């Protein structure tokens, strides 16, 4: 049951205007009346309609940023870019992480709406999940911008050309003579992982190579996942000569596993990552993702939506990605 101001008025015997005034922290009420209203609101679980209130009040000068994994350095530059633009507009950013959990993502977006943010930037899960909570934001006319595209939903978004990244990584290994190539995917809810893996498979086929299913490792998320997969690879009788990892954090785990076994990258295994994160201590060949620019672009788009409302067309941008070659790929022979 959703308790309303009218319900609280009946329960307390006070006028609806009194209930509303106290809940909106207006002056002119005795402490006794104030406590009576607040106690009833708490007792009966009254939750204010913050969306409706926000639409009729002035700006709160806050926006919400919902990312997938606050521990992943990939999101550091996204966040930095968003905050830089928000600061320029005099806005505060409320940051939270879904932890790659769909229910948590929904709850956090609802919490941001409850805080009456003026808009939201969301990095949503994009595979094997529902998007009712995102469609609800559009129905409520709350400004938002997405990191990633939801098919069929016309809204503001930016994304990266992950398919191109997967292709570039695979082609680089093939050009260096590798034919036994493995791949470590991210979580099944990640469209980036799906696109990178699809590009990897397509590139193998285009070059007349066969994918060995024993060389594919699914659902990796963390540094320790990379360590564990690296250990499994080292125990193979015939291991791949190269691994493409979903991201640099996983790649670092693979490299750690080799170091613990007294082996070296790239002499004993070539490794490629994704993201080109700042904290890399190893000269890793990786696909650079323009996360900082994407964060700034998302924020600019959101503020245009906040201030212009629904008067302009939706903005949608795909960022190019680029392979950065360092010293983690061994040349076997010229292809």
Structural write-up:
This protein has helices spanning 5-12, 16-23, 31-43, 50-56, 74-88, 102-114, 132-139, 162-175, 191-206, 223-234, 248-260, 291-308; strands at residues 62-67, 92-97, 120-122, 144-147, 156-160, 181-184, 216-217, 242-245, 270-275, 285-288, 316-319, 322-324. The protein has 335 residues and is of the alpha/beta class. β6 (181-184), α9 (191-206) and β7 (216-217) form a beta-alpha-beta unit. The strands form two sheets. A six-stranded parallel sheet has the order 2-1-3-4-5-11, with helices on both faces. Strands 7-6-8-9-10-12 form a six-stranded mixed sheet, with helices on both faces. 43% of the residues lie in helices and 15% in strands. The protein has three domains: 5-48; 58-160 and 290-320, Response regulator (Rossmann fold, 3-Layer(aba) Sandwich); 162-288, 3-Layer(aba) Sandwich (Rossmann fold), CATH 3.40.50.2300. Residues 3-57 form the HTH lacI-type domain.
CATH class of the largest domain: Alpha Beta
The largest β sheet comes out as:
6 strands, parallel
**Average predicted confidence as pLDDT:** 91
State the helicity in percent bands: 40-55%
Q: Count of helical segments? A: 12
CATH level-3 fold name of the largest domain: Rossmann fold
If classified by CATH, what would the architecture of the largest domain be?
3-Layer(aba) Sandwich
Using the alpha-carbon principal axes, give the shape.
Answer: elongated
InterPro entries: HTH_LacI, LacI/GalR-like_sensor, Lambda_DNA-bd_dom_sf, Peripla_BP_I
Keywords: DNA-binding, Transcription, Transcription regulation
Protein name: LacI family DNA-binding transcriptional regulator
GO molecular function: DNA binding
